[in-house]
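Record type: monomer structure entry
Structure origin: computed from sequence
Chain ID: A
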Amino acid sequence: RDAQESRGLGDVYKRQVINWPIRTALIVILINIATQAGAECGKLCDHYWRKTATKADVKAELGGGADIMAWNRIGGRTPLHFASTYGNPASILALLTAGAAVLVGTGKGYTSLHFAAAFGTSVKFQTLPSAGGDVNARTDERYRLLYLAASSGVF
């Protein structure tokens, strides 16, 4: 019986050794795809840049070919999600004018309105419903906008 068990462990080890190059190649491919997807956002998905960006800066990025609907590689956020969290109302309006979709959610269902409610200001929060944001939307974790806004002090 010990011989069978040790042989079984050897088989598991062999499968892991054989699968290792395939797993490594798959990880490299996925990282490459994610990096390229994030690059399409340009500075629009950079929260450090976003904190000081003006409406003119946003327009310059859009004119340079940044994709307003691209998702970044961490969290699946769009430029409008970043603007709702870190930007100013003028940059939100610039993205909306360029055609950014208000109802697009992250992998967990957070829309730009959720980010404005949780991390933004009342002015940013009020800008988005007039552009088609759903004030009754819930995240996958069942958070409502009113809860997020009240918890963060937006209202």
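Annotation 1: The mean pLDDT is 77.
Annotation 2: Helices lie at 2-39, 47-50, 55-63, 79-86, 89-97, 112-119, 122-127, 145-152.
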